[in-house]
Design brief:
Elements lengths: L9 E4 L4 H12 L5 E4 L9 H11 L3 E4 L7 H6 L1 H21 L4 E5 L28 H21 L3 E6 L1 E3 L12 H15 L3 E5 L5 E2 L1 E3 H14 L6 E3 L5 E2 H12 L4 E5 L14 H7 L7 H17 L4
Parallel strand pairs: 1-2, 1-3, 3-4, 4-5, 5-10, 6-9, 7-12
Antiparallel strand pairs: 8-11
Helix pairs in contact: 1-7, 2-4, 4-5, 6-8, 8-10
Length: about 325
Amino acid sequence: MPTLHKTDRIAVTGGAGFLGAHVVAELKARGYSNIHIVRSKDYDLTREADAARLFEREKPDAVVHLAASVGGIGANRANPGKFFYENLVMGAFVLEHGRRAGVRKILSTATVCAYPKEAPLPFKEEDLWNGYPEETNASYGLAKKMLLVQAQAYRAQYGLNAVTLFPVNMYGPGDRFDPAVSHVIPALIDKLRKALSEGHGSIEVWGSGKATREFLYVEDAARGVVDALERYDSGEPVNLATGVETSIRDLVSLLSDLMGFKGEVVWRPDLPDGQPRRLFDASKAFERFGFRARIGLREGLRRTIDWRLSSDKSGDS
């Protein structure tokens, strides 16, 4: 594919969401001037007619497909069918109608939940098919992994320049703090915030604390997405990752320290940990399009906490 031009029409599905808003900001910072944010109120991408209408009306040169139905462990346990169906059909419709419309490039983000539960560490892209995902989020993970299957099939049959990235757990300003759908970092920040404001001497945390995760600051993730949009044109999947593993127990300790919480942490081993360990090989993203994470976990958490406390004071709770 020719290099993108700064005036090319770039449609960003989910462009008003958590990652999407940062991707749009990164595109603007790099001088792209013709960005269309695809919002669900205008185009419900679970409906094929809306997906077709998107490409007929907007006529994008490139698409960054970030729209997703997503949540933490609790939301995945409550909505496995919804998450499977909506993510599957959104991806299918975007890629199908994008290729029909002659879009030059479609970049999609899948999920680390697609990796096998017992994949060897660090998780490498070649391990994606070597086992079944962790059960609590398998429906979501498998639906999003179909983006990769479809992208590779369309590249082989139609010559569509379709790229698939697998970002690790993201966090940062703009994250969703609704307890019904939030991931571990915003959920913990709000638990600690509530305990501090209400004078509670303890917080309760799901699982044993032994599970590990890898966390990528959202501005780094957005930079990686745009790096790949500009420089990567292969069907091979690529992790967006830091290569740093953190236990949930250590995460709680770090957040408690940053927020000044000195109370007790009550662990609930009767509730699920999710996947036992996550550590990713981040080398391919650097080799293929020069991406390397810049913001360490402590600094990223501090920025996220500051944003959350600031938004709370402004009434955006």
